[in-house]
Design brief:
4 helices; about 110 residues
């Protein structure tokens, strides 16, 4: 069991580590342009994440048993609709993931 002092110390340490991780790219690239690899990652990683989530979502569909893949297909449709309407990859990723998770618990 952690004491209150130890828990607060751990929280402060974790907060400092997270803050320094978030600060690092800004400190590194503030004076110059990022290298081509970083530009590539910045441009294509949201699409890659969406593709991975869709493959993960569709890998275990069973059309023979209830709910017949409804949460997965609705989640994919939500990702497409959110991405086409809002053009924000983060909203598409998180929104469709939340919809899928809720439907998989409610219907599954």
């Amino acid at each position: 069991m952690l004491s209150l002092k130890m828990a607060l110390f751990a929280t402060v340490c974790i907060a400092l580590v997270i803050f320094s991780e978030r600060l690092f790219p800004f400190a590194l690239f503030s004076k110059k342009d990022p290298p081509p690899l970083i530009r590539f990652i910045e441009k294509y990683i949201p699409s890659m994440v969406i593709a991975i989530l869709i493959v993960y979502c569709l890998k275990d569909i069973s059309f023979a048993a209830s709910p017949f893949g409804a949460p997965q297909l609705i989640g994919v449709a939500a990702a497409v609709v959110l991405h086409l309407t809002l053009k924000n990859p983060m909203v598409s990723i998180f929104g469709s993931t939340i919809i899928y998770m809720v439907l998989s618990r409610v219907l599954g």
